[in-house]
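Marked as duplicate of an earlier ticket. Keeping the data here for the record.
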Amino acid sequence: MAHINHGLRGKEGAEDQDFTRGLAEKLGMPFHTTTVNVKKIREKKKQSTEEAGRNVRHQWLHETAMKIKAQKIALAHNLDDQSETILHRILRGTGLRGLKGMSPIRLISRKHDLFLVRPMLELERFEIEAFLKERTLPSKTDMTNLDTTITRNKIRHKLLPALEEDFNPRVKMALVKLGQTASSFYLLLREIAHEVYENTKMLSGEDEVCFNVEGFAKLPPAIQTLLIDRAVKTLVGVLPHLNFEHYLEVISLCSSSGYSKTIRLPKGLEARRESYVLKIYWPKEVPPPPKLSHINLKTPGTTVIEELNLQIETQVQEGKVVGLKEYVRNKDYTEEIIDYEKIQGPLSIRLRRKGDQFTPLGGKGSCKLKKFFIDHKVPQPLRDRIPILADHDRIVWVVGYRIDNSVKITEDTLKVLKLRVSLLEDDESVE
């Protein structure tokens, strides 16, 4: 059992923490807890309280699961939570992906076979409360859930009851069924879009992705949005948050004639129509890279890099490596394994610096990082956004590209550090 105290509710928060600890003892379960200062994190990161709390929860639960070698993180979200989530996203203007709602089971770490599960997602809140009452089991209510100044609570206590009374007494179930339908269609469309992308794009380079306007315009809007996702991810390396207006604006370029206005997209990208070509591209002048001096890497653990919308998972493993060759090079370089005993000092994440150089695994000796990026056709705007894993001044891993030859594993390696980088997904955050 795990409990995190966000440090927002003073005595009440501490009482909830003690209650959970007592419940774990009564049930004979191991108990893991921590207290954080979400308010301080919020101010430092310039985030909302909800966002800061969600991020710190996600990271701590992940770290705790890996520490105790758990394979699943079970959350108590129920059918009411699911309906509220879907309705909230509808009100914000979501697409098909957002309509899916929360997944009952989701792989969050392929490297560690770690899953996030929601076993009570099909149970309504009143069923859970009735179960507890029937068996005289104790429970606690987070009083902040009654604060209707918070949007989710306003949906829970005002909007949904009004919809139940005036329109549909089973509106919660209707919303959940909508989410289930959206999920099945989304998975199907994603498979179709993969094939369509290859047939519709005219160019996929380091600075731009171009589509044939005529071919793009004939596609259903749902496929068009997924092609836009694919193009953006190709240029940026990850998929930043695109809202409904972004998709509509890019799609609308197909109805213009000749040359069109410029559409601004996240991460400094732009979209524009030029004659028969729809372009998503890096402009000549892009916004400055994010400010990131250095972030200490948790070993083992999960390090969230919010400035880059990424997280890096690490795991220390002792003993001889079995199947050495399969670890030498990873096809997409999102997962790597290095000799832990060859690390010279604390590991940290930073961005590139002038004069950086390293010896890429499989390369022909030392080279400047700048030349490596040029040789591998890394777009200029992306070069200042790629995380660098270093110990002191030495580059250990150009994240997503290549490790340094000095830390490669060999037949003599007895202790390894497994690394995996992944995108922070807004729609699937631990809430």
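See parent ticket for discussion. Residues 171-200 form the longest helix (30 residues).
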